[in-house]
Specification:
The chain is an alpha/beta fold. It is about 40% helix and about 25% strand. The chain has two domains: about 5-120, Rossmann fold; about 150-215, Arc Repressor Mutant, subunit A (Orthogonal Bundle). It has eight helices and 14 strands.
Length: about 220
């Protein structure tokens, strides 16, 4: 599942340009030309990020975001003109802003930064491997590595605590739900599977405590 973005912009050509660019970058994008349309989208769908114009046909983006903040914490980047000012944007609850005309590559960098702050690390590199923390997908080059869900969750926990010791109790709580029985034997299988992928020295056994991921 990709991040979903709502663009609220009344300049249809500008909005389509951003939509096409972000779609090619793997994002799921919807476009609203007015605040009324944006409210309708937000009523039926949860978005990960909003790109919000300041001057819209039926209202001001600053005021619209203030209203939204009473119900939603969705990260928001304002698309402003030089005359709009930035203080009002941040006071209304914005996470960032860009002054038009917008450089698309800079926009992409700002989006990634805001999403990372809001939702944590997105992708982690482990040697020749790349782990998508949001999708729980491990790839080597362009090939997916076949791991079961608990192995992927264990890898996620290790990466979140890279070079830190993680107790067995933490692992059991993270991998097994309250209605499941945690298994020492299964955990050893998952650990050995990850060692085969990343090398036996990638995971250190902390006797009587747990493990440490050092790759």
């Amino acid at each position: 599942m990709s991040y979903s973005i709502l663009i609220v912009e009344d300049d249809s050509l500008f909005a389509e340009t951003i939509e096409d660019f972000l779609t090619l970058e793997g994002y799921s994008v919807d476009v609203a030309g007015t605040i009324k349309e944006a409210r309708n989208y937000l009523y039926f769908k949860k978005y990960d990020l909003i790109l919000l114009d300041v001057n819209l046909p039926d209202g001001i983006g600053f005021e619209f975001l203030k209203e939204l903040r009473a119900e939603l914490e969705t990260p928001t980047i304002f698309l402003t003109s030089k005359s709009d000012g930035t203080k009002s944007g941040f006071l209304s609850g914005a996470d960032d802003y860009l002054v038009k005309p917008v450089d698309l590559e800079e926009l992409l960098l700002r989006i990634k930064a805001v999403l990372k702050r809001a939702y944590g690390q997105e992708v982690a590199d482990i040697g020749d491997f790349r782990f998508d923390m949001r999708r729980l997908e491990l790839k080597k080059g362009e090939e997916f590595v076949d791991l079961n869900l608990k192995e992927l969750k264990l890898l996620e926990l290790f990466i979140k605590n890279r070079n830190k010791s993680v107790s067995k109790e933490q692992i059991f709580d993270y991998l097994w739900s309250v209605d499941e029985v945690a298994s020492d034997g299964a955990l050893r299988v998952y650990i050995n599977r990850l060692k085969k992928l990343f090398g036996k020295d990638a995971i250190t056994n902390i006797r009587g405590f747990g493990y440490r991921f050092e790759k």
